[in-house]
Amino acid sequence: MSVIFGKCRLDLQPILPDELFVMENRLNHWQADQKAIWSARFIGLGHLMLHNTPQSLAEQLPYYQPDSGLTITADARIDNREDLYRKLDIPPAERLLLPDSLLILKAYEKYGENCAEHLIGDFAFAIWDKHRQKLFCARDQLGVKPFFYYCHNNLFAFASEKKGIMAIPGIDLKINKQFLYNQLVFPVEQAIDTTLYRHIKRLQPAHTLILEPAKKNLRLQRYWDLDVHTETRLGNKSSYEEGLLYHFEQAVECRTRSSYPLGVELSGGMDSSAITAIANNQLKKNGQHLLTFSNTLAAGITDPEITKLDERSYIDAVLEFNDIKDFIYITKTAFDHPIDELNFALEVNDGLERWNPLWQIPIKKAAKSYNTRTLLSGFPGDELVTYRGKYYFLDFLDKKQYLNYWLAKKKYPGFSKLEPFIPHQVKYQLSKIKRYLSVFNDRHTRKAFDQFNIPSYYKQHLRDCLWLDPMHQEQFKSYRHFQRYRLLKPQVNQRLESETRYGIHFRTEPRFPMADIRLAQFYLSMPNAYKYEGELSRTFYRNTVSKYLPPLLMQRNDKYGSVAPFLSQQKKITEAEIARLMSQIPKTSFLKNKLVHRPPVEIWLWLIKNQDWLEQL
C-alpha cells in the first residue's frame, strides 16, 4: 500500500522541489517506510511507500524509465499478474520480483490509454508520458484505492488523501454547499465524484483521467462496467457451484500476497467466515499462519438486550472448525469518548464524508499493534455475490411472467411492485414534490428541514446525486441491472475508499475478496434462479462454500453485525455535551441551539474548527 501525489502547472511554469515537499510532509502523517519525489519542469510526482507485498520490498517509486520517457507513481496491487505475464511477454526469470507498478508501466507501453482495461486488482496511479506530453491517471474498477484531484487556476494536483492537496498554499477551498447540506439529512447521499470542497474532486472508480497541460485539456473516461447482458451457460447446477467456488478461492488467494502477518476481520457472518477458512488453508500451505480480529463483548456483560447481538458463538465456531489459534477479541472502542472518535474521523477524512466506519478503528488499531499489514474483509459480499435474494421477483419481469411477478411473496419490506413501471422522470419529480411538502418526509428529514433552515435551492437538490445517477435510473431494466447497481452504487465505493483511508493511518491495507470483478461477473452472469432459491437466504452460496463453514453457520439465517463492543460501553453524547459544543459556535449561526433527533455532531465539530464558513451558510 502506498500514498501517491503530484502537481502540474498548466501555465507550464517550473515546479520547485519545495512545492512537492509541502505535500509530502502533510501526507506522511503515518511515517512511510520509504519516500521519494521526482520532477521535470512543470510536472512533479511523489510517493510514500508502505512495504507489504514481496515485490514492494525492492520497489522504487516514482520510477523513471529513460528509454520510453515514462514516469510512474502508483498505489497498486495487481491480482492478474499471471495473465499479464503472458500478454506482455515477460520472461519467467523476471516475473517473481517484478513490482506491480512496472507491470502497469509495461501495460501502458503496449496498450496506451486502454491499459486499465487489462488490469485487475486495487490501484490508483499516475504516469507522466514525456514524449506525448500528457499525464495519464487511472483508478481501479470499484474504487478501493483513493484518488483526489484539483484542477483550478492553472494548477492540477492529485493525492491519495485530500490533505495533500489542502496543504498547497493558496489552494481554493470553497465549500461545496450541496455536499454539506446533504450531510444534514438521513440517510446521507453524495455524488460519487464530489467532496466537501468544491474544487477537490474524486476520480470515479473504473475511470481514467488524461491531462494535457499545454492544451489545458482534461478528459475523463470510463473503461469498465459489469456485463448485465450475458448469461453463462454450463451443463448443470454443480458446474455453477464449482465455478463460483473456484472464483471465490482465487479472489481470496490472490489477496494473501504479503511479506508481513496477514489478518482477517472475522465477524461471524458467512462471508468473513468463508474468507477466513480459505485464507487459513492457503497460508498453512506456505507455512504461515492467519490472525483474526473480531469485535465482541467483554467478559461479564449479561444484559440480554446486548448479549443477543453478540457474534461470539459464531466466531468461536469458525475458529474451532479451522483450528485457528491466533485470534484477537476486541472488547472496547479505540477512544475513551465518542467526541474524540469523531474528531479523529474528521482528521482522517479531511472534513466530512459519507462514510465514517468507526467500528473499524479498533480493528485497524489492533492490526497495527501486531504489524499486520493486510486485513481481509467480507465487504461487499452482501451487495452481490452473497446477496440474499431481496426483490427476487424482478426476475419474473425479465421472463415476462407477470402473474408470477404480482403473486410473488415479498420477503423484505421497502419495495413497491409498481416501481419498475413508473418512468424514472416521474419518480424524480415526485421526489422533488415530496421534499417541497416536507410533511410527507420521514421525521429525520423533517427535523433537518425545520431546524437547519436549508435554503430552498439546496433542499430541492438534496437527492439529485441519487436520481441523476445513470445506473440508478437503469436499475429496473432487469434483475441483473438491479444487481449491478447494488455493487456499483456510490455507497459501496465510498465505504471501500473510506476503509482504505483509515488503513493508511494505521499502516494496514484492507483487501476485499468479495469485490473481485472476476468473481462478481461470474455470479452476475449465472442464471438468476440460483440466486434466490431455497428458504434460507444465500442458499446457493451457502452450499457452494459448505466445506469451509461449521454446522452452526450453515444453519443461521440472520446477522446482527460486529458492533458489540460499542453497545456494551453505553457511551453516548449527551445533550449537555452537545450544548457545550454549541456554545463554541457564534450566536449568529443558524445552528445555534438547534438539536435534532440524530444530531450530526461531527458537522458541529467541523464547523467549530471552520467558523469562517458559518457566515456563508
* Unreliable residue runs: 592-599
What is the global morphology? globular
Which CATH class of the largest domain?
Alpha Beta
Supply the number of structural domains. Answer: 3
Helix content: 25-40%
Strand order of the largest sheet: 2-3-1-9-8-10
- Rg, rounded, reads 25 Å
- Helix and strand content put the structural class at alpha+beta
Rounded average pLDDT:
90
Strand content range: 15-25%
User: How many beta strands in the DSSP annotation?
Assistant: 17
| CATH homologous superfamily descriptor of the largest domain | HUPs
Largest sheet: 6 strands, antiparallel
CATH topology of the largest domain: Rossmann fold
End-to-end separation: 38 Å
CATH architecture of the largest domain: 3-Layer(aba) Sandwich
Number of helices, where a helix is a run of at least 4 consecutive DSSP H or I residues: 27
Structure characteristics:
617 residues; alpha+beta; Glutamine Phosphoribosylpyrophosphate, subunit 1, domain 1; Rossmann fold; 3 domains; six-stranded antiparallel sheet; 15% strand; globular
